[in-house]
Amino acid sequence: MAQTIIASRETFQSLRARLPAVTREHLFDCYAISETTWNKLRDGKPVKCVTLERILARLARLEMRAAA
C-alpha cells in the first residue's frame, strides 16, 4: 500500500495562493492534479506521499519562475 500524508493547512494555503482559479484546467496546468486530489488536500484528507512531493516540486518551479 502506498504511503500517504496529510498536507498542512499552510501548505494548502500556499498551493491555493498560486492557483489562478480552482478549475479542472488550472489544477492540471499548475499542479497536474485532479479535482479529487485537490478536494482531498482542501479537506485535510491523506494523499499519496509521491503525489504531494510532485505538487510541491511544481509549486517551487512556479515560484522560481515568478521570482525571475
Describe the structure.
This protein has 68 residues and is mainly alpha-helical. It has 4 helices and 2 strands; from the N terminus they run βαααβα. The longest helix is centred in the last third of the chain and has 19 residues.
Largest sheet: number of strands, sense, barrel closure: 2 strands, antiparallel
Number of helical segments?
4
DSSP strand count: 2
Percent of residues in beta strands?
A: 5-15%
Unreliable stretches covering 5 or more consecutive residues = none
First-residue to last-residue Cα separation: 40 Å
Coarse morphology: globular
Mean pLDDT: 94
Helix content: 55-70%
Q: Indicate the radius of gyration in whole angstroms.
A: 12 Å
Query: Could you give the order of strands across the largest sheet?
Result: 1-2
Write the H/E string, N to C.
EHHHEH
Jot down its keywords.
two-stranded antiparallel sheet; 2 strands
What's the topology here?
Layout: E1 4-5, H1 9-18, H2 24-31, H3 35-42, E2 47-48, H4 49-67
Antiparallel strand pairs: 1-2
Q: What would a concise description of this structure say?
A:
By secondary structure, the protein is mostly helical. The protein has helices at 9-18, 24-31, 35-42, 49-67, and strands at residues 4-5, 47-48. A two-stranded antiparallel sheet has the order 1-2.
